Amino acid sequence: MLILCLGFGVFAQDDPFRNSIVLSFENDMFNKMDWYFSNGINIGVYHSALGKSPVNRILIPGRPQEEDIIYYGLKLRQEIYTPQDLNHDEIIVGDHPYAATLSLDSEKIVNRPSEGLRFTSGFQLGVLGPLALGFHAQDFIHKITPSELPQGWNNQVGNDLMLNYALAVDKEIFRDDFSQFALHGRARLGTVYTDASAGFRVRMEEMPAYFSRFGPDVSRSFNLYFELGGDIRFIGYDASLQGGMLNRTSPYTIPSWDVRRIIGLIMVSAVLELKRHQLLFYQNVVSPRFSKASWHAWLGISYRYWW
């Protein structure tokens, strides 16, 4: 899966890190795979300017409390999906269809430290299908790797509108001087993804502060922490498998009865912070998403600089 991300944030007066740049790369080749969620690139810039965006009026919570620390974001995101068998230009029934999305996402993150809460809401507007340029992105990645080029992009899911809304809530349950345990829930509704997730997050860090800051701790020149999470996701609709909701003429899709309605996800990450620098490594594992699918995993690497 290829992801291009441009993000912006606005910080409370007590947060010294108002701006940052982030660059990330994701790929399943680190797990010796090259299918489903394939590869990713993230580029992000955080700045206070987007606090005035009118889109924020529909993001939650609508009336923040006085103590809330609020961040606003704008993301340019591309996702790419491919089948397990990449060596044929004809349709392989029972395998994942080629699919790609490209969207502009407006996001709002609200930390409420006294209640141990984080709200993350977002609105996505974009396209599904050839207009998302999935073939061109993957063709470039495979040429510089180098590796064999996928042969079946002419059968990818057809063009359609991407219109999605997402809301996630994290709630702290337990915290001591070296760890933090939280419950996590998320729901998405729209033309591409409609689903709901519930799970947990564990953070191992000296004096963890997930719900009180977004940037690094200014009192430390060095910080290292680890996170582990698990989710159960309930699938209503997945256009990367089933095709767009408006355009029903895609050459090939997975029929509704073959889509797994309950899947599991595991996330593990390690984060190193050196003053204004942050380096993140994260591993994701997901259970089969349709009847003939297999388990899948991908690794991500992210660098962020704060100023």
- Give the class-level CATH name: Mainly Beta
| Number of structural domains | 1
Helicity range of the residues? under 10%
What does the average pLDDT come to? Answer: 89
Distance between the termini: 29 Å
Q: Main sheet?
A: 13 strands, antiparallel
Q: What is the helix/strand order? A: EEEEEEHEEEEHEEE
Cα Rg? 19 Å
Structural class: mainly beta
So what's the overall shape?
globular
CATH superfamily: Outer membrane protein
- Largest beta sheet: strand ordering: 2-4-5-6-7-8-9-10-11-12-13-1-3
Number of strands: 13
Write a brief caption for the model.
With 307 residues, this protein is mainly β. Helices cover 5% and strands 48% of the residues. It is built from two helices and 13 strands.
Describe this structure in words.
- By secondary structure, the protein is mainly beta.
- Residues 1-13 have low confidence and may be disordered.
- A hairpin with a 3-residue loop joins strand 7 and strand 8.
- It has a 13-stranded antiparallel sheet with strand order 2-4-5-6-7-8-9-10-11-12-13-1-3.
- It is globular.
- It is built from two helices and 13 strands; from the N terminus they run ββββββαββββαβββ.
- The longest helix has 11 residues, at 134-144.
- The protein has one domain: Lipocalin (Beta Barrel), CATH 2.40.128.
- The two termini are 29 Å apart.
- Helix content is 5%, strand content 48%.
